[in-house]
Amino acid sequence: MKRIFAVLAILAMAVVSLPAFAADIGVIFMHGKWGTNEASSPIGPIFNEIKRADALLETPEMPWSRARAYDRDTTAAMAEIDALVEKLKSRGAKRIVIGGQSMGANFAIAYAAQREGIAGVMAISPGHTPDLKGFQDSLKGDVERAKALIAEGKGDVKGRFNDSNQGQEQQMPATANVYLSWFDPQGLMVMPRNAARLKPETAFLWLVGNQDSMSQRGEGYAFARAPANPKNAYKLVTGSHTEAGAKAAREIGAWLKTL
Asked: Global pTM?
């Protein structure tokens, strides 16, 4: 009997000493185009679920926010995420997950395609599609105008360029060099190409709402191009482009716990 109690005591101590399930995971989650990283934003519920999974979390304001208005190019934005990765590691993160909503999802895929050692990518309501003709048409030729300005040696002169976001269009202040880095159909922000460049060890979550036009493109657009991984997941959920992530926040948290 004493031996049984001793074994039970050892098991109890082992359970108590176990870390929280995702305590060694650090997550960087990025907002959508013209969006905000505030907890009160539509992606706030996602932040809450990541925290409930006991993961460390960073929620940066990125260059495509309304306030920053493309103040940095893609290379500088990559460096911003690099710094946050190091910050998470200094806080104890052993595994890094990069996620985002809409354009944040796009950039999460791009970052993981360019870097080593990323444990997972969470692409929630992915958006910003410079590779698609309809998106290119909405820019009214400003990509070609940016290329012309760069050829004239005016790439660092700030101007105004067209942007498109879920059917809404407006002009944004940016230099031609910066604008082209985000909007070039052959540039960094092409999701199908970046998905194909993910590393086999990087788990890939693609979550999209059934009322989001991206859902019509299905798995074949980008998700299916990623290397096979048993933890890859394509989820079609209820909701629009803006609301799907919040409605499915628990599914996002549950997927994070599988890593």
From this structure: 0.91
